[in-house]
């Protein structure tokens, strides 16, 4: 079965969030099951593309409204990713040093049109197309409605919602940029008087998935305006829990961390990584180390951190290390915290892949008071490295973490508030003091299997029903 994944991100080529991790891992595990899963994404000017060489596979031109735009499909010369990678190169449009900006409508529309024009040229087109998030949301519509792609409209399309908060809205004034279609069907593009790529994908895709069962349920009540649409399309919607790439995230072989370890050597391994973190960031390795890794945005509850940290650090009996970047006001508040708590708190504003691995390996607890978490991968990474997560009871966090009070292995808070998160941290601190129970839990969580294999099998069965 030949499957083409279409995405704006894919690790390790370009990563902004968890979307990249999913698209960089799922095809590899699908290929292990006997598929031919491939990925097509934009060609960005970044570290990956500068450090690798590519060959031109296909060349043509697309119309974006009245503009005639040349594009190329590039392939990676030395591919060790575990799946075929194709990059859409459009000079002056996609070849930026960033993935997203505040004006992406034309960029990603050009990307989608170029992908479909290339697919249309293939002698052996994919048996199924799998689109990811709103940047690819017009693909299902164009396959179904645009005259130029009528020969492709029998190809089943699966569309995965990674985060329904972002929908790619743009004005009907730009409808002329979409390849010509029967205008009586323009309503398929519309939601709330705007063209809405996410809504169009939900309407036109053969199957709609989310990245966890609980997130699918939550979207029925909170989907940033799409609740009624998802309710009307509920029969083709299903939640499939994401997995993690256990080859990349493996403390036994991880080349990024200070000392490798397994379940039997977790105590000495984590101690070595914690020691490095504490020496590097001026913290005390004898205190429980709490960490956060991620985007500093409201969705992640990051705006709560200055108040949370101020309160829990008063007694100086824990340490906190934060790795992330995001909204300037949140960053400023967290940087200012160091003035009052420099001996127990530090941060790295930005993102560093190597450092993130060491933090997972060295921290005792990972804090995730997210307001929105469709699946969450960080809590799965932390389990893999023997780091106990503190999570809000939503989305994929609810599906993957059970509280210690219910014979579980994590700390689950009831809501994303300052008080609830402070209580969760204090509960974790008390659990840390129960030395043997804490150590046993660290060893146990490393055995929990959240690999992509099961999710890949679930998608395999879903694909088969559509193709048949």
From TrEMBL:
Domain Glycosyl transferase family: 282-430
EC number: 2.4.1.21
Residue ranges of every copy of the Starch synthase catalytic domain listed in the record: 2-231
The reaction(s) this protein catalyses: [(1->4)-alpha-D-glucosyl](n) + ADP-alpha-D-glucose = [(1->4)-alpha-D-glucosyl](n+1) + ADP + H(+)
Pathway the protein contributes to: Glycan biosynthesis; glycogen biosynthesis
Chain positions recorded as ADP-alpha-D-glucose binding sites: 15
GO-annotated molecular function: alpha-1,4-glucan glucosyltransferase (ADP-glucose donor) activity; alpha-1,4-glucan glucosyltransferase (UDP-glucose donor) activity
One BP annotation, GO: glycogen biosynthetic process
Signal peptide interval: none
Keywords: Glycogen biosynthesis, Glycosyltransferase, Transferase
Family matches, as SUPFAM superfamilies: UDP-Glycosyltransferase/glycogen phosphorylase
Alphabetical list of Pfam families matching this protein: Glyco_transf_5, Glycos_transf_1
Sequence similarity: Belongs to the glycosyltransferase 1 family. Bacterial/plant glycogen synthase subfamily.
HAMAP family: Glycogen_synth
Function (record text): Synthesizes alpha-1,4-glucan chains using ADP-glucose.
The protein, known as: Glycogen synthase
Organism annotation: Aurantibacter aestuarii
Gene: glgA
């Amino acid at each position: 079965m030949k499957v083409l994944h279409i995405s704006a991100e894919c690790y390790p080529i370009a990563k902004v969030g968890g979307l990249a991790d999913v698209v960089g891992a799922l095809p590899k595990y699908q290929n292990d099951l006997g598929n031919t899963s491939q990925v097509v994404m934009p060609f960005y000017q970044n570290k990956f593309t500068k450090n690798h060489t590519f060959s031109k596979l296909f060349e043509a031109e697309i119309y974006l409204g009245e503009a005639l735009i040349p594009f190329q499909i590039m392939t990676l010369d030395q591919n060790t990713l575990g799946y075929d990678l194709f990059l859409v190169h459009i000079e002056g449009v996609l070849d930026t040093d960033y993935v997203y900006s505040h004006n992406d409508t034309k960029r990603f529309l050009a990307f989608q049109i170029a992908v479909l024009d290339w697919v249309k040229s293939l002698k052996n087109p994919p048996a199924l197309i799998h689109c990811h998030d709103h940047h690819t949301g017009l693909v299902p519509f164009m396959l179904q409605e645009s005259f130029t792609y009528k020969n492709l409209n029998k190809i089943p399309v699966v569309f995965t919602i990674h985060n329904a908060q972002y929908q790619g809205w743009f004005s009907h004034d730009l409808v002329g940029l979409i390849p010509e279609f029967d205008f009586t069907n323009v309503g398929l593009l519309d939601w709330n008087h705007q063209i809405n790529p996410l809504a169009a994908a939900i309407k036109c895709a053969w199957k709609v998935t989310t990245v966890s069962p609980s997130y699918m349920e939550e979207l029925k009540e909170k989907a940033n305006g799409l609740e009624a649409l998802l309710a009307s399309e509920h029969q083709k919607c299903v939640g499939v829990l994401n997995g993690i790439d256990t080859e990349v995230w493996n403390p036994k072989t991880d080349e990024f961390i200070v000392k490798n370890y397994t379940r039997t050597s977790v105590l000495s391994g984590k101690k070595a990584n914690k020691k490095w973190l504490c020496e590097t960031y001026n913290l005390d390795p004898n205190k429980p180390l709490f960490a956060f890794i991620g985007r500093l945005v409201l969705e992640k509850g990051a705006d709560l951190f200055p108040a949370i940290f101020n309160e829990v650090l008063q007694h100086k009996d824990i340490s906190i290390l934060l790795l992330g970047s995001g909204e300037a006001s949140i960053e400023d508040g967290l940087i200012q915290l160091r003035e009052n708590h420099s001996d127990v708190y530090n941060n790295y504003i930005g993102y560093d892949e190597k450092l993130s691995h060491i933090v997972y390996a060295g921290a005792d607890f990972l804090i995730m008071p997210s307001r929105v978490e469709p699946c969450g991968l960080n809590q799965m990474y932390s389990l893999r490295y023997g780091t106990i997560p503190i999570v809000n009871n939503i989305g994929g966090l609810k599906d993957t973490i059970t509280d210690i009070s219910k014979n579980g292995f994590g700390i689950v808070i009831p809501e994303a508030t300052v008080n609830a998160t402070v209580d969760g941290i204090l509960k974790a601190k008390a659990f840390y003091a129960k030395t043997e129970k804490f150590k046993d839990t660290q060893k146990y969580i490393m055995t929990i299997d959240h690999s992509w294999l099961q999710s890949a099998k679930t998608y395999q069965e879903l694909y088969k029903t559509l193709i048949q």
